[in-house]
Amino acid sequence: MKRIIALAFVMAMVSVVSVQAQDKKEWIDPAEAAKVLDYQIQGEYVGDFIEDGEKTKIGLQIIAMGGGNFRAVSFTGGLPGAGWKRGDKTEYVDGSLNDRGQVVFKLEDGEGTAVATIKDGKLIATEGDALIARVEKVHRKSPTLGAKPPKGAVVLFDGSEKSAGNWVRGQVVLGDLLRHDVETKEKFQDHSLHLEFRTPFMPHARGQGRGNSGMYVQGRYECQILDSFGLEGKNNECGGIYSIAEPIVNMALPPLVWQTYDVDFTAARFNDTGKKIQNARVTIKHNGVVIHDDLELTHGTPGKHKEGPTADILYLQGHGNPVVFRNVWAVKK
Prior knowledge:
Blueprint: E1 6-11, H1 30-33, H2 37-41, E2 43-51, E3 54-66, E4 69-76, E5 79-80, E6 83-84, E7 90-97, E8 102-106, E9 114-119, E10 122-127, E11 130-138, E12 154-157, H3 161-164, E13 167-168, E14 172-173, E15 177-179, E16 182-184, E17 191-198, E18 213-217, E19 221-225, E20 259-266, E21 269-270, E22 276-278, E23 280-286, E24 289-297, E25 315-316, E26 324-332
């Protein structure tokens, strides 16, 4: 999409309002967010960029930035984890709603102008009379969403008040979801883990203030939970092992979409004197895609417990943002 200097999105939508017309700063209910124009524009798109008759597959992530502002990220080859991999071509462009209800994105290369129209989830871009892009909105779901706990699993949260009792500070919110800032009463050594999480829609927030939580395996190693949709995928963003490793690919889906972590963890080993003789290791799938492959955890991460030889908790960090969880279970090895 190099030649585009102005990309105007003509929205064929009714009964929606722009974020910039509201005082509301965060949404935790997908049905309420769906009424907002900015949220409807935000999302993932897949299709072709067309130049001189040649088609190149692209993925597009459009991120709501608050006040009718947006960032679009294009991925040559497809979306992250579905055709695009770290190191492949990526381009960023910012834009905003104008007074005609359009979103205009401006690039700096000055090589041309394109207008794109979105209708029924389909985006068609033209430059003059030439078709230069055709993409369609997609709604990806994790293949492990709703995974059932196998026989012998420790069911940590199943949506019931009773299962909330498996957690210190356990609280059911929004009917059947687990509130953040909780830790298990059960402790674990080597184990596998499944959990599902949902970040809020906070378009005005930035960085660590946007849907922040964390999955602390053994209370010692944090895999970040954050609204990192469209970001680079750093070690302090969603899927990153804080201070240790960035994810192989940023698999963060848009806010208010349910996401999964599936973990295979081997605890660190200590000798009789308490000296660590073997580092912990972890494999993590984010939304079904491997983001850490038998990663060696060289040290614990800050925020909860220090490394040690004994079994320890699962901690779901509280960071002041309304992140929620469901379907959490573990299998001890």
